[in-house]
Design a protein that fits this description.
Elements: H1 2-19, H2 22-28, E1 29-36, E2 42-44, H3 45-52, E3 58-73, E4 76-89, E5 92-107, E6 110-121
Parallel strand pairs: 1-6
Antiparallel strand pairs: 1-2, 3-4, 4-5, 5-6
Length: 124
């Protein structure tokens, strides 16, 4: 049962992000949110929203989950995802596969996205 809930949460996060729903994304993110992108840049909650959610900054073409795996221990969930993404950031178009680790914490019976890290996958 937990797997289905976390998969739905992960899919919901992706949908909110690609739609540019800043308020709904803010609601599912932990106040101490931290993220490291595939270029090694670090983001807190507001800078992540500004860079990767706000439609004024990013235009999402697609973000598709290829694989999904989770490990849950008490109030912490680690989710490993292989994503295929296409988006335009500023004047640059990006397309690629990314291995992503997302961390969720459960507070007051609600899972919140704590943060994560992305690595671009170079396929030969």
């Amino acid at each position: 049962m937990e797997t289905l809930n976390l998969k739905q949460l992960s899919d919901n996060r992706a949908e909110l992000q690609t739609k540019g729903d800043l308020d709904a994304m803010r609601d599912i993110m932990h106040e101490e949110f931290r993220y490291v992108d595939s270029s090694g840049r670090q983001f807190d909650k507001e800078t992540f929203l500004d860079q990767f959610v706000d439609p004024a900054s990013v235009q999402w073409i697609s973000q598709d989950t290829v694989t999904f795996d989770e490990t849950v221990s008490g109030e912490i969930a680690l989710i490993q995802i292989l994503l295929e993404e296409r988006f335009i950031l500023g004047t640059n178009a990006y397309e690629g596969r990314f291995w992503v680790l997302h961390v969720y914490v459960k507070e007051n019976d609600k899972w919140l996205w704590q943060g994560g890290q992305a690595t671009m996958i170079n396929e030969l």
